Amino acid sequence: MRNSSLLILEIIWITTGILSVITGIRYAIMAGGSKVLIFALMAVISFVFAWIRHKQRKKS
Are the CB atoms for 9 and 53 separated by under 8 Å? Predict the structure, then answer.
C-alpha cells in the first residue's frame, strides 16, 4: 500500500478510537455505565490498529 492510503487508515482508526472514548464517557454519565466496557474495548482496539498502521507507514 502507498503511504497516503496507510495515513488515511491511521487517521480513521484514531478517529474511531476517539469517538469510542467520547461515547463511552457519555454512556457512563447518561446511562450509568452499563456498556462502558464495550466502548473502552473498542477504543483500545482502534488505537492498537492505528499504532500498527503507523508502524507500517514508517517502515515503508
Answer: yes
Q: Write down the pLDDT at residue 22.
A: 95
The cell for 12 is 480513521
- DSSP secondary structure string, 2-60? -HHHHHHHHHHHHHHHHHHHHHHHHHHHHS-SSSHHHHHHHHHHHHHHHHHHHHHHHH-
Written as nine digits, the cell of 59 is: 517502515
Q: Give the pTM.
A: 0.84
18 pLDDT above the threshold of 60: yes
Domain residues of the chain, as ranges?
3-59
